[in-house]
Amino acid sequence: MSKAKGKAKQVKGKVKETAGSAMDDKQMQAEGSAERMSGKAEEMVAKTSEQMKKAKGK
């Protein structure tokens, strides 16, 4: 898992969410929102993992 992958997932989810909103497709909107939140969680896990590795090194 990496911060870049999490960020990419967030962007993809936002695009899907926006497209769903523009097409009035509630399911696509919900899928995009879920994907965006999943990406945010992945990014946070990656950041925490990096911080733990740095803390162990000190």
| N-end to C-end Cα span | 23 Å
Chain-averaged pLDDT = 94
Shape: rod-shaped
Structural class by sheet pairing and helices: mainly alpha
Count of helical stretches: 2
Q: Taking Cα atoms only, what radius of gyration do you get, to the nearest Å?
A: 15 Å
| Beta-strand residue percentage | under 5%
**Tally of separate domains:** 1
Order of helices and strands: HH
Question: What is the β-strand count?
Answer: 0
Q: Could you estimate the helical fraction of the residues in percent? A: over 70%
Q: Could you name the ranges where pLDDT drops below 50 across 5 or more consecutive residues? A: none
Q: Describe the main β-sheet briefly.
A: none
Write the layout of secondary structure elements.
Layout: H1 3-22, H2 26-57
Helix pairs in contact: 1-2
Write up this protein.
The chain is mainly alpha-helical and about 60 residues long. About 90% of the residues lie in helices and about 0% in strands. The longest helix is centred in the last third of the chain and has 32 residues, at about 25-55. This is CsbD family protein. Pfam families: CsbD. It comes from Streptomyces caledonius.
Task: Give the tags.
mainly alpha, 90% helix, 2 helices
Tell me briefly what this model is.
With 58 residues, the protein is mostly helical.
